[in-house]
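Our consortium's second objective concerns turning raw sequence data into structural hypotheses that experimental partners can test. To show how far this objective has progressed, the report includes one record in full. It was chosen at random from the queue rather than selected for favorable results. The single chain below, 333 residues long, was entered without modification.
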Amino acid sequence: MGFEISNVEFDNFLKKLQEEYKIYAPVKLKGKGRFSDTDVVRYAEINTIEEIIFDEKSNFSPKEVMLPITKTLFYFTEDSVMEPKVDDKKILIFLRSCDINAVRRVDEIYLRNGVEDPYYKKVRDKVKFALMECEHSFENCFCVSMGSNKIENYDLFVKHKDGKVSVKCKDESFKNYFDGMTECNVEPNFVTKNDVKVKIPENMDVSVFSAPLWEEYSSRCISCGRCNLVCGTCTCFNMQDIFYKDNKNVGERRRVLTSCQIDGYTDIAGGHSFRQDKGQRMRFKVMHKVYDFKKRFGYNMCVGCGRCDDACPEYISFSNCVNKLNDAVGEVK
């Protein structure tokens, strides 16, 4: 079922929906980019259709709505532990097909990877998706190669063009909001071709871990971790205990997103570290995205959104690295 409505009618829908939902979408934050005179497209709560950025790829993924950079898991005193209050409102997120596919990957890690994470599940159970189509492929995207350019698992499809909003409603709970509005046939368009193409090698073995290609990144990478923090499928975190000044026995435990590329991530007792060399860290990240995850769950972790390439200050390309890996595997064989 589809509808074509005006901006005002859609804004009224959002206003009614806000009684039980928090609504997140990519918005442009003026002066919040890498430099003081640049902007950034990032996820935030919205009130109107005009706030949503439909024609640009967000610099950060919608992952941060469900997995905030810092999350308090519980507060503690000398003799008690208390979890923070959870907002009862549901969540609606506007996002693209690659990002919905990315959420599936995050679900595998937090919900179906041995132990179900209760903190993530509380949020995830409340989330619904509003699909935004890509009329064309954005820079550095390679979603077609990764098979994440299409998706059927969404609750709404929303297209905004020429002052009109086209909506396809797949979730029964939303249909009542559109009673009496003009019905029409609405279907999303999906990207079928990217400028960037990636070939993921098949039948890899341990010999590729010692391939010379990783040495290049020992000097190029600066361990800033931007690639991981903007990625929609990276899920690594550290735990931090915060102790209050007034009483050293009172505080909170926080989960903080981190990066396998950052110094200190693999440090262990005794001052040892598993991967001190930056080339080794790059190898770990790449092989996790296109080898380890697939070996466990049956499909690749990377969705080809290209945000890692967009964010890297050293112009390191993940897609190029995977293609170099494919060439290295061919040489070994």
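The partners drew two points from this record. Residues 206-238+259-332 form one domain. The chain has a mean pLDDT of 93. Both points have been shared with the crystallography group to help prioritize constructs.
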